[in-house]
Amino acid sequence: MPGRIEVSGRVAGRWQTATLTEIRRETPRAATFRFAVPGWAGHLPGQHLMLRLTAGDGYVAQRHYSLASAPDDSGHIELTLDHVAGGEVSGWFHTVARPGDRIEVRGPLSGFFAWPGDRPALLLGAGSGVVPLMSMVRHHRARGLTAPLRLLVSARSPEELIYAREYGAETTPVFTRSAPDGTPVGRLTAAHLAPLLADPPAGGWEAYVCGSNSFAEHASRLLVAAGQPVDRIRIERFG
After folding, report:
1. SS3 label, residue 67
2. Start and end of every FAD-binding FR-type domain (predicted)?
3. What pLDDT, in 10s, does the model give residues 208-237?
């Protein structure tokens, strides 16, 4: 079973200046923020970074955020942030930040949730948990990778489905509150996983689960019940 990917402590330990170049609205509560980071060393899909904001009075706030962008040589990275009620960092991004603003970033961090593109990947995400998984989907497309990849993404409604315009045949959306006509409403179930796990690709799936604590628990239990080996389930959770 492929294990943790090593992360360079020298690179990940260095703070770099990132300049905000673009803001794209994804849903009423989520937006993508694109940054130019000339010294960015590159990353693997699934990794995250540490972000640091410093106020005029010297107050410092730091947060971990998953990278949404696929690795490339453009010197740019993207983060997709929910506007969290009362969140000082997400609140600043959604109400104050403008192109040209500068922040500090450190990373990439963590090799456990990274996907190099060399193994079949079964991705399960909910809400903003889809962010690191979308980095994997984008990487898969940009490189024309042949390793099988499938994404099941859960959202409360089509209006709250982050990256809705980008999904293709590899993606199955699951809506828990409201859905388009003809689409069932409800949580992710064993029926969604059955066709994928009943006939897995050669070598089996490496499963990546990202979302709230409750979603991560629910999705991982479904995977295990369907026969996915526990040591081939990688989980990143928040909340």
Report:
1. coil
2. 13-115
3. 999 999 999 999 999 999 999 999 999 999
